[in-house]
């Protein structure tokens, strides 16, 4: 899990959008995006480690590419998250960061950002 | 899990928005938001109880604050959900309610609402 | 899991919206929507099968309708997903498709679509 809060915030700031939503979308099928605690890196490690126990890499899967666990984790965490924008930046809670979740890497990956103005 | 449908609907109604989306965001890292059946309270109890079995409180975690299970559950359920708005109120299915999911409480919590007009 | 990408894309194309977001919402409490690999149908089978092992149909649940597992899976995968729109169609990754996840069927089901223009 990689904290991408700063990179996303830099996109938001360039846009000049003051209030609305920031939609983050992962165009991959073995990765995901979530929001969780960024203050203690052990939180992200615990999430990844526990996902490994819930979805073992070596269970009996039909998909023959050896990464079925990564596909399953991707749908459990989810391919997108939307974060509010207030005062021109991501409105995150005190302890929150946005995390890209790599389940089948390392690989070069993208996150697509769409900004929408509040009504 | 607390049914917050009425509170969210009151925000939607005050806005005069007729059609669009209502984005609900949890600015905490040990809580989440979801939509599920509101008719039978046992459904929410089953969800919480089963999450306790999938993510035990006393497993071996690295995060030292004793609430790693709550952080993991928060990312499994997710920090946000978007519900359509039609005719000036939340467009929920017949049996659906919006639930705030507390995994590390009781605490005073917030849900942030962003309304967007349909194009 | 049913690949509904073509149906959703046909709604997007009729709208003439060029760039923005497509919000997909499941108004049911024992079904969900996700994005994952559409190239190999075994991926969707692995997801469903693994969810069955994580949330057994015959565990001890309080909800008396025999479908508590389906309610729990619905909140693990989630009732909604938002996909970007670019150039007038869903902007999906190379291997991605949008999947309706039926956990308590077969039944006649709906997915509600809300389109929002990019700011």
Brief overview, please?
Chain A is of the alpha+beta class and about 120 residues long. The first copy, chain A, has helices spanning about 5-15, 40-55, 70-75, and strands at about 1-5, 20-25, 30-35, 80-85, 90, 95-100, 110-115.
Write a structural description.
Chain A has 119 residues and is α+β, with helices and mostly antiparallel strands. The first copy, chain A, has a single domain (2-117), classed as Sandwich (Jelly Rolls), CATH 2.60.120.460. In chain A, 29% of the residues lie in helices and 31% in strands. Chain A has three helices and seven strands, in the order E-H-E-E-H-H-E-E-E-E. Chain A has helices at residues 5-15, 41-54, 68-77; strands at residues 2-3, 20-25, 31-37, 80-86, 89-90, 96-102, 112-117. In chain A, the strands form two sheets. The first copy, chain A, has a four-stranded antiparallel sheet, with helices on one face. The model of chain A has no long low-confidence stretch (mean pLDDT 98). At the A-B interface, strand 3, helix 2 and strand 4 of A face strand 2, helix 3 and strand 7 of B.
CATH superfamily of chain A: YjbQ-like
The quaternary state of the protein chains shown equals: homotrimer
Question: What gyration radius of chain A follows from the Cα positions, in whole Å?
Answer: 15 Å
**Most extensive interface between two protein chains, with residue counts:** A-B, 34 and 32 residues
* Unreliable residue runs of chain A: none
Biggest β-sheet strands, sense, barrel of chain A: 4 strands, antiparallel
Number of domains of chain A: 1
Shape descriptor of chain A reads elongated
Chain-averaged pLDDT of chain A: 98
**Distance between the terminal alpha carbons of chain A, to the nearest Å?**
33 Å
Which structural category do the helix and sheet elements of chain A fall into? alpha+beta
Helix residue percentage of chain A: 25-40%
Beta-strand content of chain A: 25-35%
Number of strands of chain A: 7
CATH fold type of chain A = Jelly Rolls
Query: Helix and strand succession of chain A?
Result: EHEEHHEEEE
């Amino acid at each position: 899990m990689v904290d991408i809060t700063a990179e996303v915030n830099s996109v938001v700031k360039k846009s000049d959008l003051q209030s609305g939503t920031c939609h983050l979308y992962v165009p991959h099928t073995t990765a995901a995006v979530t929001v969780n605690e960024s203050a203690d890196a052990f939180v992200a490690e615990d999430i990844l480690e526990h996902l490994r126990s819930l979805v073992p890499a070596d269970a009996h899967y039909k998909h023959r590419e050896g990464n079925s666990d990564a596909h399953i984790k991707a749908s459990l965490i989810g391919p997108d998250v939307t974060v509010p924008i207030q005062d021109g930046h991501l409105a995150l809670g005190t302890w929150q960061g946005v995390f890209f979740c790599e389940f089948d890497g390392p690989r070069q990956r993208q996150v697509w950002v769409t900004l929408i103005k509040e009504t």
